[in-house]
């Protein structure tokens, strides 16, 4: 009894202490809010722009509401933490501490705002006024969105507090972003009698058309009448593509649905960001991987098998003997072809595996070409993109059916949901990138540089950015510098619009209905997404908007840096990627070595060489690319015939066709320049390539205590006779930097975000970002 009394007294003391702590922090936050608002009034009267501070005030007030809700609903918050298993620590303690954590972060962003505005007022720093986005008057140009006559980078959240109208100014505004969207189109729009569900259609027709937005095709569900008509429809399904894309009935259904979508939305602002043709499509076909364990692609339909047999007949020119030789089989005809599916892991590198992986990609391209064609029947100018998983390109796995080049080339906009992260929370193992870098940027930069090389003149939409959190990573105390670094990097590498994952708070501070009432959501991944997300981090939400405001204020400078010519191109072959166990891993070594040399890295493929102006680059590097088709080989030869410049690591590259057969031909120099090195070191190719191109007039030197450089930089001449330079520190250490000129001319560096002089030698912190005006 005595023990229970002591526990009760202790609990009461804790609750009282906790309550006092909460009151003190809230009181301090309100006091600092008043201080900042007073400074804003003073600054406004003096003609200074206070848009950035308006956002700080807005997020501060929102997160104080959020903290109060979380404080009153600790069991719910604890459950959210418990659901996300990779997050380590005492979940009960985390839930208990979260409200005060949120209040403390509110105080921190207010302190930052007070400090910055004080420096503006006393002249220590000079800021360019924020170029606000005019969400209702966005113009879609060839390779950019514009607002008020200038390039603009759009921002918002994907899956934004579902159930609330997109006209709700508490959720759709300059602070959280204001991109519109129409509820996803699905096959449920179509009835069995092939008439349309008028209730769904009327919602779309009556949706206000006031601002830029997007439309998403959801492929996860379909009405029961379809499966009754054809039970095979679910064979070959995956998580976000719940049906067989080779099914003729689904072709008929989607033809009607997407044509209707194009018809009722044609010419509307709400589709200015395009029609998203699919959410994260994939068709992983290997036994034992994560998708297989989820029941994805455990079998395929008779339609897929028939299509594969026809594909084989065409690709083997009806020569079954040739297929039997490659597959080591004895089929009497293409009609009798059969094989074990899902594929075993040890089939990687075999002709059978090459044929399936290539066919799988081709049929997926065919599906999306079909959707786009049907859309353009009713809306010929409708822009399209696909939320493509970019690690399918940068990883070594190739059974997923995603040909990033072909799909990027197909759609009218570039689409993806690229991610960055620190160490995978599911693993305790050291990751190789940690030797030199603050976070893993490979997927983002490699895939973006590749897609921008494939389609340099297309708008680029990341419809679900995973820079703030993902399945594999999130961090409750994410630094604002990390957020700024990521979004600056992504924008510099091509991103024109980013819809971040995700905003799930209602205007009263509570989580949206799908979290409060889990019965409404069958998405297991979604229910695990709330813990440690941006929805608990005022410093993250605020910094995302702050960096986008800065990027938009300097949009013309960013576009100038983005449109630089890419003089060195790395040759990419999906043929080698399909056949080799670690092709993309090997390729990254060369990419990484060039990434920190002050120039944008580009790619060349057979199609790029064939379709684009070859004067857009100076040299193509071929590194550890043993397998290429005859068509790829011939295009490289044509490039040399036309005066091209190629550097190859050694004779092993380009030595085999797609089936591992030795090639008798070798490239001939002819009218171009061909250098075949006797090396397997990527550094040798890098050094020779750098000698093949004009060097920058301005040079950035770095010292960071590491073996490798960590600062990625670009420089272009500006209209004043000086230079514009962007520097992003990806290294895990602070860097000491020095700016000099090739001819020894003296310069000085001005931080364009603050107009402060840095001289020519200065430091850049971990995750630091600089935009410099280099004056002679």
TrEMBL record:
One of its GO terms (molecular function) is beta-galactosidase activity. The keyword Transport does not apply. Gene3D superfamilies: 3.40.50.880, Glycosidases (3.20.20.80). Its EC number is 3.2.1.23. It is an enzyme of class 3 (hydrolase). Keywords: Glycosidase, Hydrolase, Signal. Residues 1-22 form the signal peptide. This is Beta-galactosidase.
